[in-house]
Amino acid sequence: MKKFIVIDGLDGSGKDTQVNLLAENYEKQGRKVTVRSHPCSDNKFGRKSKQALLKEGKLNHIKATLYFGLDAIRSVQMYYYNKDTDVVIFSRYILAVMYLPNFINTVVYKIVAFVLPTSDCMFFLDVTPEESLRRIGARHEEKEMFENIDSLRENRQKSQKFTYNWNVVSGDDSPEEISEKIINKCLETDKQLS
Asked: What's the pTM?
């Protein structure tokens, strides 16, 4: 049976680090792993989402989220249903809806979570905004529109509306501690399925 794993969280929470550690773990077991980190640069939706994220304003805010969603849907179509893959790991997925305006984001989340695949191995790395901003600053990359202390605080608070059925892991812990928690939970669900 195909294993579907999602790792999400605020910018700077360590998503890509954890995705890479988890992929290595499954590859050592001889599993065929596909990793998708959204927004992806290999298609127009992902590129347009990233372009909008590097700009300011409400229109770019909405464009970034909508193109992100199309990019994630494309990944589901291309990789989730691919029979050549045992494990599919998404970095960033349906929680992008939290960036939509409050009057619509909850409804959109419920629809998206109903239509798109979910699993028992969906992890939210709950990093404090201060730690997130410190890590973002250490990357020496162009900052995206949500990478400021006010947005990080607001989005962390918003995330609580959506992560009630996710595995919430402290993103302030060391990468090794986070990895151990994620791998243990995935192993637990593997045992339940076998």
From this structure: 0.89
